[in-house]
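Thread: quick sanity check before group meeting

JM: Hey all, I'm pulling together slides for Thursday and realized we never actually wrote out the predicted structure for the chain we discussed last week. Dropping the sequence here so it's in one place. If anyone has concerns about the input, flag it before I start.
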Amino acid sequence: MHVVLAGGGTAGHIEPALALADALRRQDPTVGITALGTERGLETRLVPERGYDLALIPAVPLPRRPTPELITVPGRLRGTIKAAQDILERTKADCVVGFGGYVALPGYLAAKRRGVPIVVHEANARPGLANKIGSRYTSFVAVSTPDSKLRDARYIGIPLRRSIATLDRAAVRPEARAAFGLDQNLPTLLVSGGSQGARRLNETVQAVAPRLQQSGIQILHAVGPKNELPVVDHMPGMPPYRPVPYLDRMDLAYAAADMMLCRAGAMTVAELSAVGLPAAYVPLPIGNGEQRLNAQPVVKAGGGLLVDDAELTPEWVLSHVVPVLSDPHRLYAMSHAASEFGRRDADELLVGMVREAVAAGRAG
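JM (edit): ok, ran it. Output follows.
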């Protein structure tokens, strides 16, 4: 069996694709895997690092919503679709699995032309244009939220890295807190805004950090590699405040924390839910509002808080986050609710869908 993955562009598309690739290889080391990508995407680094073949096609950016520009897409796509068809023919592809973005659409259209089975995975609560189109060509559609609007959708969650999907936070906590120089017994707030959404979170946390410390809360703060580290006044006897540029071991960061203050990207919500880490979600106030939709189901289940970007202030943190971190019973209840909502086995479930699609294609 040879599977072609179409999920280039951003980490939100690439990481689920690579998690599926890992799961396919765990079940059958002989499975052939090729990832479609473009020269401009993160896949040029991430895919080879994980040991998978990368085949490049021309990039054709897609409008996020129907606009007059949409009518020019088919003409611009012709060469890209032909390049994708050539890859499907060369690899003798048995299935194309798309994860959205501008790599997925030519993958879907090439698969349709060649009669190759298609599987669609949509990570966001509000599907993008590529997956809306791709879902019309297949009955094998996987989604990350239980209330997806895509037809024939199966709720499976998002395929996660094994280091996250198998994480036992309680067991790893002593090692994790020691690694970051944190106290073993104090309530711990993890803060990260990602690469694009860190500024507002950074400003708020830096302003409120001394009052959090005075409340007995320690902080692990990933400020972002392009942002300046705050100057920390190490107050004797106060809980630690540990600002770092970047966290390359998110599993350890999750294990060290009792709660997280973060944006609400689909991957972040999926990872926190899977490991049972409560969060205060601050959706990015851009795009089509998908980050709020990503967070709403787990918040409704009791596994997190939700606050608009404009309302995130030091006062909000003190009145909403501190009470949670200061109440072990509430922390436990929110952690349990998050883990009950989360899915750790999405990679295995998606492998099952791929095998179904391949079997149906061969039978047809």
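AS: nice. The chain is about 45% helix and 15% strand. The chain has two domains: 2-160+345-363, 163-341.
JM: adding both to the slides.
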